[in-house]
## 1
Amino acid sequence: MRLFDRAVVRVLPAVPRGVVRRVAAPYIAGETLEDARRVVKQLNAAGICATVDVLGEDVSRPEEAEAIARAYHDALAAIEAERLDANVSIKLTGFGLELDKALCRSLVEALVEDAATRGIFVRIDMEDSSTTDDTLDLYRALRAAGRDNVGVVLQAALRRTLDDIATLADLRPSVRLCKGIYVEPASLAFTDYETVRANYVKALRALTATASHVAIATHDEWLIEQSLRALPPSYEFQMLLGVREERATQLVREGHTLRVYVPFGEHWYRYSLRRLQENPAMAGTIARASVGRLLGRSQ
Ligand code: FDA
């Protein structure tokens, strides 16, 4: 992560929640499944497919994990009933990974089974490095149980990612490749912007040889151009709701499959902070305001 971004990460929690809510609104479909359904329909009408995310992570009680799982079952039912061109993305901490691994596993197994009966794919998002092993282990267990409608995410920022690609190769996995949003120690992750980019390109090459499908998840123009020069046999581009929408439309016009990540739900705060941290315009505004405040200037 760039030095500048680290400074923004530090000050973001001091920004009032109301302000976060307002400025992060374009990144979130809304609070209800109906909001997500409306946004997915709009995307589908523009030739763009979606992956629906029920917001919620780091739950502290089993009932919260169960509520998130229920919301996902409802989302699957809506996707099927309305024939939406969409799948779902889940976060294992939202399913209780850090609370009770057995509960998490059984909730995820039930969801993947429900999705399979409806012909819908489930992507397991990758969270911070403390969850990488558990996430890949659960993915392997699901595949060993015969579930093929499930895929994982790998992060170019992590030093271990090329090894993980090699270890997963026997599964011919469906992988979303992203840079990785979590702040990690330098012992585990590349922290320099150009090194992360270079590792993304290496990982993409390795996945081209081993993965059954690669989701190229980035808004970085340089990486999009690099990917277009040597696309994997089966691929799609992925972007986040509210980011680089014109570029997304252009990729669709050029004939590429483009999937947009559509988060919805009441637990919008942490996701919003991550998006604001990555918005170059927002990062500058927030950092300047905070430095001004520290220096006692009124802004
Ligand atoms: P980068 O951050 O350099 O952005 C490139 C350009 O895109 C910026 O210069 C700016 O123009 C624009 N941009 C990016 N973010 C913006 C924002 N919020 N607002 C306005 N403009 C913005 N991470 C993870 O750790 N685990 C995961 O499971 C996922 N899943 C995931 C799914 C999908 C579909 C996407 C697109 C991304 C993720 N990520 C993720 C996030 C990912 O790791 C990464 O943090 C972001 O995609 C930002 O990295 P870029 O590659 O876009 O480059």
## 2
Amino acid sequence: MIDPFGRTITYLRLSVTDRCDLRCTYCMPERMTFLPRADLLSLKELDRLASAFVRLGVRKLRLTGGEPLVRRDILWLVERLSRHLRSNALDELTLTTNGSRLEQLAQPLAALGVKRINVSLDSLDAATYARITRGGDLAKAIRGIDAAQAAGIAIKINAVALRHDNLDTLIDLAEWTHRRDAELSVIEVMPMGTVEADRLDQYVPLTEVRARFAERWTLTDLVRSTGGPARYVRTDEGGTIGFITPLTHNFCGGCNRVRLTCTGQLHLCLGRDADADLRAPLRACGDDRLVDAAIMAAIERKPERHAFDYGSAAPAVARHMSRTGG
Ligand code: SAM
Ligand code: SF4
């Protein structure tokens, strides 16, 4: 799959549900309206679609959400998809989670071939964590991280930089992460969907975070091409930190990814509304010819770059991050 700008698409992020057991203030409103359950594709259908992407050249598959681990029978889907690891069609099967169910699921996920997991954790202070997530239990998330590491899964911690909630404690979070032999990625809050908070008020350009880190450590840029928006540095103490900066840097030139929602909408760019419906071709016929054709036609329409901009008060895209999973 090569798009009109010469970018080869090798990475699919699959949102298996838009539901979540948390309500992070930057991600969704407190009274979030979720999709009717009847609109969700079945796990079998998600497997069929994801497998079509693997057949067409995807080498890395990330399950996300909403919270992927709250989808019922999620291990069934992971088990199905793990056949692509065994056949070497896939290089990596991974997921992004808030960690709330990792304590129970880390071991089976590891047994199915999951080697790395991103866990979102914005604060190490229980009260701040509960406030940001609107009710999340920090100890539970940490037990999940412990269980994953005990199962041999490498952990990357994702933290959204929030001016009033965690900016002053990101160095502590980095140190905690590095002590656990994990990596930290800091993320700029993106204007996706409406939430109660004023995003401009929450937003911190990561140049500012990096400057704070540079007061604590000598930072060396790492050359690492993930095709994504992250730039990595190594601290003089040996820890790795990623900066995910859609607002202050344009990362679109090397973009290698597309996103599929749990209703079968293919999003061609995180920061644009361009999408394609794969549910109709999936359900129209038992073999995958129509699906393959719809995917290839969609890739032809992948936008050149995102439209994120804090110049306007309106969100750049109307959907919440929980629809596409970041
Ligand atoms: N529930 C899982 C989790 O939190 O890791 C997976 C889905 S969540 C939507 C994926 C990532 O998107 C998380 O790291 C979260 O912090 C991030 N995120 C959510 N809304 C965001 C926003 N408006 N701007 C930047 N990152 C956001
Ligand atoms: Fe849920 Fe993840 Fe969004 Fe937080 S960031 S509300 S954990 S989907």
